[in-house]
Amino acid sequence: MEIPAEDVAPMARAVELAGRGHGTTSPNPVVGCVVLDSAGQVAGEGFHAYAGGPHAEIVALAQAGERAKGGTAYVTLEPCDHTGRTGPCSRALLDAGVARVVIAVPDPTPKAAGGAARLRAHGVEVTSGVLAERAEQVNEEWLTYARLGRPHVTWKFAATLDGRSAAEDGTSQWITSPEARADVHRLRAAADAIVAGIGTVLADDPRLTARPSTPGEGPAAVPDVPGVPGIPGDHPGHHAGDRPRVRVPLRVVVDPDGRTPPSARVLDGQAPTLVAVADDARTGIETDLLPAPGRAAAPPHAPDREAGEPSAPGRESGESSAPDRESGESSAPAHEADLVRVPRRGAGLDLEALLRELAARGVVSVFLEGGPTLAGSFVGQGLVDRVVAYVAPALLGSGRAALGDAGVRTIGELPRLTFDEISQIGPDLRLIARPNPQPGREK
Questions:
Q1: CB-based contacts of 395: which residues, under 8 Å, 6+ apart?
Q2: Which of 203, 185, 174 is nearest to 394 (CA)?
Q3: 421 is a catalytic site residue
Q4: One of 45, 57, 140, 369 is an active-site residue; which one?
Q5: H-helix or E-strand containing 423?
Q6: Sign (positive/negative) of CA torsion 77, 83, 89, 93?
Q7: Tens digits of per-residue pLDDT, 215-226?
Q8: pTM, whole model, 2 decimals?
């Protein structure tokens, strides 16, 4: 479609604003909004900062005040048309007297969709599809979750220039620089779950926690925007208790035969943990996962992750019969880990079934780490949505490859990717790419 020239800059700004919500809105989408007055001047801006907080449209309209009347609102995702923990944004736009609404991406969820239709029915001019590709990319985690019913998966690996992730003797610390490792922790903190395989747990005993070193980059980082009502820090009606609790990424161990040892650091209680085993595995791991004498239970502030909590993709969290996903309260016992049984697939697990289980627990984004075997299974099952590679200017020549068997038997089956970004992090390169669409496999 041909985009009116005057719509490009305001929608680009709305997309930029939406990106500020990364890591703090889950299980809600990231959304940005810009309101122009009737003269075409910016009257208000906003973005969705955290689940349960005001939506982007509400923030922007509050800032615009009376200037919104007769103006235009630019929104990266179709305004919601239902009442959850906040009222419908479509009605807020109508009440403000906005004359035109420009939308980048329609809402794919039946519960929240319909805002555009309501606006049109009340005489508001609605334009859709403006900068849709850019808006989709900034919101790709939630859109994957909403459209496919599973979390968005980012596979991260570190390797030498010749593609080795470990030396011949198995050592891998450290291939990349401290700057690259700090960047990894920043990305971890923005994810809902960090996933690794049992091989990595047994070999490296990782903690799989997010430990960003820069203040304000941790999972509790909620943007403070001076002068924007509804964002923590400046609103006269805002109270300290309105801030969301610290989000701690769920640790997930893919362990088909239930070999996770009770002493593993992923069971240290520093973050919630889920161990996924095969549905036919004969293991005593259930007993091992109970709190041991002298060992702390999982912290009660880690929300969203109690086993058995149903969830469905939507613009609002906490609207089903499940406990409020932002309250941090749980009626379940506090354990080091929960256990989930998943069907086998080959020598491993049915990873799509595992991802759907995680989606049912409110997990929107997965950060995949660990060894080449699990990575190969994710790639082979077509479940990797983005690749983040840290490449060090070093050579090993032998040792472990970054990617194991991914089911590619001939060059014609080669999964190809498109680079989104190539940047330098300290002495290393960070490459961000996404798989090209494959026939018969919808995204």
A1: 160, 161, 162
A2: 174
A3: no
A4: 57
A5: strand 417-425
A6: positive
A7: 444 443 433 333
A8: 0.80
